[in-house]
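ESCALATION

Customer reports they have been waiting on this structure for their group meeting. Please prioritize. Original submission:
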Amino acid sequence: MNKAQLVEAIADKLGGRQQAADAVDAVLDALVRAVVAGDRVSVTGFGSFEKVERPARYARNPQTGERVRVKKTSVPRFRAGQGFKDLVSGSKKLPKNDIAVKKAPKGSLSGPSPTIAKAAGKKAAAKKATGAAKKAATARKATTTAAAKKATAKKTAGTAKTAAAAAKKTTAKKTAAKTTAAAAKKTAAKKAPAKKVTATKAPAKKSTARKTTAKKATARKK
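Update from on-call: job pushed to the front of the queue and completed.
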């Protein structure tokens, strides 16, 4: 049965085809909007419609057999009510002149009982508190991570600065050592010629002494 056939099936009960089409559209629209919003639509004896979160998973392409990743998504789910199940299974007979799915008892559509409402309120509050706690934990974790990154960056900068200073100091020492070595070499070069001259003059003194001895010997002979 498609939508047009469904409209035809209930047209006589609603006073015409147009009224039946409007009623079907209104019911389906309300059902879809409620499920999309995350609400659970339950019809006594028929079943319930709800939104289900499906986590990310891996699946296989039936044509190629390749393993592919399926993203996280939300899907609608329908659960048949017990009355509907009993009619389909045959444990209960389908009524001929009555509605298959009975109407909800009087007062059941006015809202849940105070006990159910209170339990639902507690559940919602607990869920809200859990969400707030998770957000706070995430914020604390982000703050701690940022502080750790900042400290690491500061430590790295200090280490780099110390290394640069040490390298600069080493370079200065090497430059000073080179300058000292050059000065010592220059001084040694200046002193070397003076010693050479002194060594050259020594034979001259020896020749003078020989001449003086010769003169004395000549005077004695005379």
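Sent to customer with the following note: Residues 107-113, 194-202 have pLDDT under 50 and may be disordered.
Escalation resolved.
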